[in-house]
Design a protein that fits this description.
Layout: H1 2-20, E1 57-65, E2 76-85, E3 90-97, E4 101-110, E5 115-123, E6 131-138, E7 141-147, E8 156-163, E9 169-178, E10 184-194
Antiparallel strand pairs: 1-2, 1-10, 2-3, 3-4, 4-5, 5-6, 6-7, 7-8, 8-9, 9-10
């Protein structure tokens, strides 16, 4: 009787292993995999997900940002990687910067509001709630904004712009822009060349 129960229990333990081998995995066919390490664009995703297609892969970049006093820091080497996630319906990027800053974003296109929704995460400063920018591609630039007051209390926005985009290189600028658009204060500039 004990042997019979042991065989039955052992069989139940193996059942899930054999059952999973029968699952249809076509629903993850656009995920990163050994043949396509950066995934692939899902043909059923909103067409705007292709806005980031030129950046998919790894790029070697030069990054420079401002000090609190307004002067520019030394240029830092950076690796920026973009890949498709969520079965090719969204884009994730990861940043490794030479001065121990690690960051990344999840970029989803919200069809109902016709705009990108971009959530930003970073280390060593770990936010309880990620910063979120919204925006669209206009001409050959991807412009993302979120409301942000200047240190003097003036209304404006944090504006992130991808520009000079092609399949070999792209540039990125972070700037504070006044509400009326007359004042722009760049705080971070990145120049990238595709590595793969």
């Amino acid at each position: 009787m004990i042997l019979k129960n042991t065989v039955f229990i052992f069989g139940l333990c193996l059942l899930p292993i054999f059952s999973f081998s029968q699952i249809d995995v076509s629903w993850i066919q656009y995920e990163p995999n050994p043949a396509k390490p950066y995934g692939d664009l899902n043909p059923n995703a909103p067409e705007q997900v292709a806005d980031f297609r030129p950046m998919i892969g790894q790029s070697e970049c030069k990054s420079v940002s401002r000090n609190p006093d307004g002067s520019w820091q030394d240029t830092v080497d950076m690796l920026w990687q973009f890949k498709y996630i969520m079965n090719g319906t969204a884009v994730q990027d990861e940043v490794w910067r030479g001065n121990d800053l690690f960051a990344g974003s999840i970029r989803q296109y919200h069809a109902d509001s016709a705009q990108w929704v971009v959530s930003y995460f970073s280390y060593p400063s770990v936010p309880y709630t990620p910063n979120v920018w919204h925006g669209n591609k206009k001409d050959n630039e991807i412009i993302l904004t979120k409301p942000q007051k200047a240190p003097n209390g003036m209304n404006g926005s944090s504006t992130l712009t991808f520009y000079d985009i092609n399949f070999y290189e792209f540039k990125w600028k972070g700037a504070w822009v006044s509400e009326d658009g007359t004042t722009e204060y760049p705080f971070w500039m990145i120049d990238c060349k595709k590595r793969e």
